Amino acid sequence: MIPLEEARDYVIGAVAPLAAVTVPLNDALGLVVVDDVASTEAVPPFANTAMDGFAVQAGDTSAAPTTLEVVGTIAAGDKGDMHIGPGQAARIMTGAPMPPGSDAVIMVELTTLSEDGKTVEIAEAVPAGNHIRSAGEDIEPGDLVFAAGTIITPGHLGVLASLGTFEVSVRRRPRVGVISTGDELVDGPGPLAHGQIRDSNRRTILALLDEAGFEGVDLGLVADNKESLTTSILAASQSCDAMISSGGVSMGAFDFVKVVLDEIGDMRWMQIAIKPAKPLAFGFVNDMPVFGLPGNPVSSMVSFELFARPALRKMAGHQHLDRPTVQAVADQDLLRRPDGKTHFARVVSEYIDGQYRLRFAGGQGSHQLRAMANANALAVLPDGDGVKAGEIATAMLLD
């Protein structure tokens, strides 16, 4: 058996980031910035008021309460080119440009406008700069806005839009084909014949890809024969950046996935010292990375988390490839038997009183998908007897 880290190093080291593309902002959410982004504009582009109130000369308020002449109104979007002289004020709305001659804003709550609107009484003195957003206060021209490697969030989109930057250079979102194999598998809601099971892995993996920010492509359920598999995999290599298969990677006599991939690809077939998800295939077909995951539902998901997801994140340009891990207290015995493998137990993690706590999510068989669905973490149990209640375990958080 191959140590886990050796297998991960091999898989992740074999893939490379995808080419950079320029995309409109509407398509950039979740993608990774390729180049440093520098500002060509100031934000805000002009001095403006942070409050509804009156633009004044601060010195005129030093003797407050005092009365000033109202010379006009400035709304957001106005040019704001009226001049404010000594003893004068202008009504001003949030976001409106500061008029020449003014150096402070007094909020409306501290003012009383006369009935005819020609004068305003100022209740308190204010300093110069009061409630003013200076030009370039947030961003100056030439500032580094986001460094290469930044993952674009809604906030980043807003900043880019405020700078007039409506296209951005990013790593492409990996397009990943997903195929299921096995003559025992059926699709759809109809009744099962004896010996048949419904295909769950394909939909699960497609959902995991979507959750991770990749583009999943449903390649369907393909029968266990060489011609069908060859046609499907070669077609995927022409349209996808990577492919994930589920099933057919163990040593069974009818595992045609292995036969086909050995004929048309450059593959490595591994038995990894982990449980579940011991068998893994990885290699290339026409330069397309191929991840051959085991067919058992839980094994397929765990294998995805340990190998496919981090490798695909590298292809997408991410710097942090793995799920976060934490140290957690076991609320019950998380026991196992020594077998030379690292076990990944499906657990529920809760953050209580400043620490993470773990308990089993259900049955731990590699076919027991309900426990995996209920789990929000994987407890990493090194070879040995496991972890007793009250002891500390490492947990990989899944949400």
Explain what you see.
This protein has helices spanning 4-14, 154-162, 201-211, 226-239, 256-264, 297-315, 369-374; strands at residues 20-24, 37-38, 48-49, 53-56, 66-74, 88-92, 104-107, 111-113, 119-122, 132-133, 144-146, 167-171, 175-181, 185-186, 197-198, 215-222, 242-246, 266-271, 274-275, 279-285, 288-293, 325-330, 334-335, 342-352, 355-360, 377-381, 386-387, 392-397. The protein is α/β, with parallel strands linked by helices. It has four domains: 4-18 and 173-315, 3-Layer(aba) Sandwich (Molybdenum Cofactor Biosythetic Enzyme, Chain A); 20-42 and 140-171, Molybdopterin biosynthesis moea protein, domain 2, CATH 3.90.105.10; 48-133, Beta Complex (Molybdopterin biosynthesis moeA protein, domain 3), CATH 2.170.190; 325-397, Beta-clip. A six-stranded mixed beta sheet has the order 7-4-6-5-9-8, with no helix packed on it. Strands 16-13-17-21-20-18 form a six-stranded mixed beta sheet, with helices on both faces. The longest helix is centred in the last third of the chain and has 19 residues, at 297-315. The model has no long low-confidence stretch (mean pLDDT 94).
What is shown here, in short?
The protein is an alpha/beta fold and 399 residues long. It is built from seven helices and 28 strands. The chain folds into four domains: 4-18 and 173-315, 3-Layer(aba) Sandwich (Molybdenum Cofactor Biosythetic Enzyme, Chain A), CATH 3.40.980.10; 20-42 and 140-171, Molybdopterin biosynthesis moea protein, domain 2 (Alpha-Beta Complex); 48-133, Molybdopterin biosynthesis moea protein, domain 3 (Molybdopterin biosynthesis moeA protein, domain 3, Beta Complex); 325-397, Beta Barrel (Beta-clip).
